[in-house]
Amino acid sequence: MAAPFAFEKRDKPLRGGQIRAFVVGVVVALLLGSILLLIAGHDPITIYTKMFDSAFGSRRGISTTLTRAVPLGLAGLAVAVAGSMGLWNIGAEGQIIAGAIAGAWVARLGGDLPGPALITLMLLGAVVGGGLLALGPAIARASLGVNEIITTLMLNEVAIRVVRYLVNGPWKDPDGNNFPIAPELPDQSALPALFERSNIGLLIAAAVLLGFGVYTARSAWGYELRIAGSSEKAATYAGISLKAKVFTVLVLSGAIAGLAGGIELTGSSDRLVEGVANGWGYAGIIVAALALMRPSGVAAVAVAFGAVQVGGLSIQTLGVPAAIASILQALILFGALSAAVFTNYRLVRRSSGVTTATVATS
Amino acid sequence: MIRTMQRLMALLAVFTAFTLFAAACGSDASTDTGTSGADDSTEADTGDADETDDTDDAMEDDAAGDGGDVKAAFIMVAPIGDAGWNFMHNEGRLGAEAATGVETAYVDSVAEGGADFDNAVQQFIDDGFNVIFTTSFGYMDATEKFAAENPDVVFEHISGFKMNDTNFGNAFGRMYQPRYIAGMAAGAATETNKIGYVAAFPIPEVIRGINAFTLGAQAVNPDAVVEVNWTSTWFDPGVEGNAAQTLIDAGADVLTMHQDSTATGEVATAAGATFIGYHSDMSAQVDSYLTAPVWDWTGYYTDIINSVKDGSFAPAAYWGGIADGLVDISIPDSSPVAGEMKDVREQIVNGDFDVFEGAIFDQDGNQITDADGNLVVDLSDPFGNAIGAVGDAMNDGILLGMGFFVQGVIGSVEG
């Protein structure tokens, strides 16, 4: 009550405000970061130039950024698809692992298949794997109303333990000198290269992102999704079957995250490893939030996020400690995220706020 | 149209902000205190073409034996911290930098087997680094791949089992040697005759260390047993501390560990037990510290960098011991067996004593080797692959695949 300012919801989102807010947020974050860098004894211009150059300054940089954007984008899409109907899938991390496990299993069974067939089956397996891990939370939420945040989050722990068990036990590499690692994947299971470090996983992810972006924005299905997200009553009144919708969306969300795991496995890894998800699933939550839960916005955010990660890693080679690089990344993301609030809200002075609000609504 | 205008305005705003910002900070550029040569790498980054030229130049220089352009990079799996595995690698990096005068840089907290590692290595290559040390087991496959793609860059991986004939070697230390001596200190220090060993994963490296430690303890105290508690993590102070406490509760009065944190030492101190560390001298961190088998990577890093400098680099699977200075142990004068420990260290350095010589029995009492150190049974690794046959001497191949516990160890190699 004592606060002199309050957030007031805008009547309608600021037109083009998203970009403006994003830019302001990032610039403020860069300024704050430069203070930090100066204190640590680094020249902010050198550092920021390096960040930008490493992410976008060369073909290789671009390919590195895009390669990172693939799992970020798919994980972000997984979260956003659920998020656009008000569901929180916090389990993308585990679903990525489940996808990778399923993909690796397919490779164990069909190691003699020709490349294209094997890769297709591995990716399909990954989609099924991710969807299966989301099946429990989907049924529980749809039929019993069990909070999907808790169930999806807890399954992350289950997934990481399953992969740990596999590489320490039944899937341990006989040629691995007793190290806890899975066997190398068959050579033909590697996704074909596209350019530099990028592989065709980039095209698959782009197609999925584009497809979902367009479909959820234009189709009746996507419209129903948003209605269900904004008001259960309205959805029921409109004859939308909520239970079926909740179930489908959560399983779909898991399947998309699973695909990310499959692409990571066939694209970037030589074998199934414990760290296959690498935090992409959690980063996907941030990506989705930055995209305001709109599947159509995920791709751009994923590329930007990937660039920040690539840049953050690159400046460590200039002697910037990992901790400061992480803080910089966090600042930039936080700046962008908090700025997004201003698209829908404005800051008003508490004392005159009532009058303003009255005028605005009258 | 309006939307497009707004976008243009937004872009303009960014550029304006950046320019103002650049002007404001420009005057500070001279205060840059980054790593030596940071300016060079920034210049090299101003364009893709420049970058490639720079790298080519460096290679030509190398071929000419000039060596002035050797730059060494280090990739580490966890924060450098103040006492563990990565800390000692960074100490080695700084030591080698001082000894060779080459520019070095490092990236830490790089996850194994994924995009982070690829990015870090590629970044270093693009910045003209031509010796790259990757210091975690999980980097092995990716290091092999980069070595094949970048024949002009030397890669050294620690610790794994892959290498090639031209530009990719691996290295590790015979940590079992100082572990044996640490075991002697533990055997003399224990009053309950039970020593607790907090260990990460049941891989040959860790099993070998536990066995050597146990043989050392029993050499001075035949009644001493070593109880192992697995944590399934290299670094997790909470889990390590709990594992240590379990061993204290089971009656151990001396604790040691194969982990990356000092949590075991803190539990030992709180319980009034004695702590034997690992990696580095942990006397500053742990009050109950007695001694520790330690790493010193300076010599190895220096040798590799110098060999690249003078063009004599040849990949090897290097396994250095106390005699090479890669591993060692400081011998505490307070220990009642300090004299014996010094003797054993001396004999190891001279080659007069080998930790796994003589008759060895497994934890179930089955004889493994005879008094001459030759196998009396066929040995296989956990998958049934033969690693040694009756009559074979206890060689490095058997040590590297070691999958059994010696007599006196309580615990399971299954993990």
Question: What is the CATH superfamily label of the largest domain in chain B?
Answer: Response regulator
Structural class by SSE content of chain A: mainly alpha
Topology order of chain A in helix (H) and strand (E) letters? EHHHHHHEEHHHHHHHEH
What's the overall geometry of chain B? Answer: globular
Determine the fraction of residues in helical runs of chain A and give it as a percent range: over 70%
- Report the helical percentage of chain B: 40-55%
Rg calculated over all Cα atoms of chain A: 22 Å
In terms of DSSP E residues, the strand content of chain B is 15-25%
Q: Average pLDDT value of chain B?
A: 84
Beta strand count of chain B: 18
> Given the structure, what is the number of helices of chain B?
13
How much of the sequence lies in strands of chain A comes to under 5%
- Head-to-tail CA distance between termini of chain B: 67 Å
What is the CATH architecture annotation of the largest domain in chain B?
3-Layer(aba) Sandwich
Summed over residues and divided by their number, the pLDDT of chain A gives a mean of: 88
Structural class given helices, strands, pairing of chain B?
A: alpha/beta
User: How is the CATH topology of the largest domain in chain B named?
Assistant: Rossmann fold
Notes on the structure:
The complex is a heterodimer of chains A (362) and B (415). Chain A contains 14 helices and four strands. In chain A, a hairpin with a 2-residue loop joins strand 2 and strand 3 (198-199). By secondary structure, chain A is mainly alpha-helical. Chain A has a domain at 67-292. In chain A, helix 2 crosses helix 12, helix 3 (59-83) packs across helix 11 (280-290) and helix 7 (201-218) crosses helix 8. Chain B has 13 helices and 18 strands. In chain B, the strands form five sheets. In chain B, strands 2-1-3-4-5-12 form a six-stranded parallel sheet, sandwiched between helices. A six-stranded parallel sheet of chain B has the order 10-9-8-6-7-18, sandwiched between helices. A two-stranded antiparallel sheet of chain B has the order 11-13. In chain B, helix 4 (85-100) packs across helix 11. Mean pLDDT of chain B is 84; it is low at 1-67. The chains are: A mainly alpha (362), B alpha/beta (415). At the A-B interface, helix 1, helix 2, helix 3 and helix 12 of A face helix 1, helix 2, strand 2, helix 5 and helix 6 of B.
